[in-house]
């Protein structure tokens, strides 16, 4: 059975304050070498550069597969340092099943091949939504607001409006990179639009 990590952060490629995933996982009692599959939401550096340690070594020694949206493969491989992972890439499309309880979900608009991953625990659903939301304080209340880093702002807007509505109706947990600590919570409708209620 695979042990799956969704995205792996920016590593130390952006800022000295980043690149501490291994320490955070150790604090949580997770050995990085136990991760056998990484499912990437998209190929932007703040989601993929953590495949490498600051000194250039591979961060996950037990890694056997990197799941990525089929349309994101080209962008991933355009970064020369990531070419070494080519043989591990496993392109997926929305609706593909990664494991018994984990499903790939198309979340178009932000980046080519932007993919979410829906985890069903038999009690709750958790949608790992990548960069569906960038500015939580604004985009939950007004999901129509777009962001300059979205490849296609109109598509990203429509996707966000639909997924927030669906998550609120189904009481699906959302987990996302830019949601702020703790990065997971529920979406509820309110008079202005939606509100994000972080997990306690």
UniProtKB/TrEMBL annotation:
It holds the Pfam family Lactamase_B. Residues 2-178 form the Metallo-beta-lactamase domain. Signal peptide: none annotated. Keywords: Hydrolase, Metal-binding, Zinc. Belongs to the metallo-beta-lactamase superfamily. This is MBL fold metallo-hydrolase.
């Amino acid at each position: 059975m695979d042990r799956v990590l969704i995205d792996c952060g920016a590593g130390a490629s952006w800022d000295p304050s980043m690149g501490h995933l291994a320490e955070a996982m150790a604090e949580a009692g997770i050995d990085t070498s136990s991760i056998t599959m990484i499912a990437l939401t998209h190929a932007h550096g703040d989601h993929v550069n953590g495949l490498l340690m600051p000194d250039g070594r591979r961060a996950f020694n037990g890694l056997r597969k990197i799941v990525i949206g089929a349309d994101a493969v080209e962008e991933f491989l355009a970064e020369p340092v990531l070419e070494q992972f080519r043989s591990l890439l496993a392109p997926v499309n929305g609706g593909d099943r990664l494991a018994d309880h984990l499903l790939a979900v198309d979340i178009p608009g932000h980046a080519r091949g932007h993919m979410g991953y829906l985890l069903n625990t038999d009690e709750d659903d958790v949608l790992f939504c990548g960069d569906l939301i960038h500015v939580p304080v604004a985009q939950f209340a007004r999901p129509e607001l777009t962001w300059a880093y979205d490849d296609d702002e109109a598509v990203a807007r429509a996707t966000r409006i639909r997924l927030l509505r669906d998550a609120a109706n189904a009481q699906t947990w959302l987990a996302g990179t830019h949601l702020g600590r703790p990065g997971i919570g529920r979406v509820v409708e309110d008079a202005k639009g939606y509100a994000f209620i972080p997990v306690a």
